[in-house]
Amino acid sequence: MDGFLLPMDFTTTLGLVAGTLTTAAYLPQVLKTWKSKSADGISWSMLVILCSGVMLWLLYGVYEHDLPVICANVVTLMLSTLILGLKIRYRYPVRG
Amino acid sequence: MDGFLLPMDFTTTLGLVAGTLTTAAYLPQVLKTWKSKSADGISWSMLVILCSGVMLWLLYGVYEHDLPVICANVVTLMLSTLILGLKIRYRYPVRG
């Protein structure tokens, strides 16, 4: 049945779309945090655990030579680190 | 070199730890949102795009018969949907 009902690259396309969505999801959060100048509603633990996990996914992608996993996690790591950075910046503003 | 410097199941373990972290990350966010009775700091778009993406990852796992992907994404879907549900509940409280 496989390959008859579904085109051969259906699951690959599905994975790519899924990866694009779970990566792109953090972009509106970056914009919201940037505009509101606050990330108080976002949990510190969530951001730290998320960044660590994404870093390990990236390492996993490197070991597995899996380019889609590497690309998705490089972008997710950038966005989640950016949210964490903004949270630190707005929580502990530099005075001077 | 592969399999000589690294034990054979190193990357699998790495993937499992990474998946556990990126899944568990949403738990402190659920608790924070529940305790503060507000999810105003979390972007609607982020939650909706994230839930859609995780749903597609789950479908990907089902097509690929990939149990770790299925398990991780079932839990992530539950937690992200819970945050979305709490955001809706606190944003539009039922009056009566």
Structure description:
Chain A is mainly α and 96 residues long. The first copy, chain A, has one domain: Monooxygenase. In chain A, 75% of the residues lie in helices and 0% in strands. Chain A has helices spanning 10-24, 26-36, 44-64, 67-91. In chain A, α1 (10-24) runs parallel beside α4, α2 (26-36) packs parallel to α4 and α3 (44-64) packs antiparallel against α4. Chain A is elongated and about 55 Å long. The N and C termini of chain A lie far apart (68 Å). The model of chain A has no long low-confidence stretch (mean pLDDT 88). Chains A and B meet through α1, α2 and α3 of A and α1, α2 and α3 of B. Chains A, B: Keywords: Membrane, Sugar transport, Transmembrane, Transmembrane helix, Transport. Chains A, B: It is a multi-pass membrane protein. Chains A, B: InterPro entries: PQ-loop_rpt (IPR006603), SemiSWEET (IPR047662). Chains A, B: It is found in: Membrane. Chains A, B: It holds the Pfam family PQ-loop.
